[in-house]
Write a structure and sequence with these properties.
mainly alpha, 9 helices, single chain
Length: about 180
Amino acid sequence: MAVDRDYVLRSAAALLTRKSTATMDEVARAAGISRATLHRQFAGRDALVRALEALGIEECEAALDATRLDEGTAQEALRRLVKELERVAGLLAFLYTENQLFEGEGQNEGWARLDARMAALFRRGQEDGEFRIDLSPAWLTEALYGLMASGAWAVTEGRVAAKDFHYMIVELLLGGALRRE
């Protein structure tokens, strides 16, 4: 029987976003396969995490494409971006804490592509007078990642309602990023 790799990855992502310390046995059970089958797909946790990273980058790039970052004001584009990223926020939260992804020469270039696109949105907002200029686009990008991860964790833990995710992220980020008169 052929194993659906995408299904296994999405099952792993769903589990690891709820329980980042899950073992490979738990990941296999969540995907409905044996540990041996999981290991044939992914040699170990590092290989699984790297595959999840690739999935996360792919999903984020798709969200950025769907957002139409150049349309409307930067604030409107940011609101659309948070809405598009909301469905992958849990995976982003998991990846955000995986330090091995951001160390050394093996860092995936996809993160740089994502960062550049998001920073360009914040830069446009600064140039158009919407966003504060004393906070760098790189910092605003990191703040967005951090808020997305924190929001995903808070929803997963039941501390905030899922319906409030978009509002909380956008309002806190824009409330701190808007240029003051």
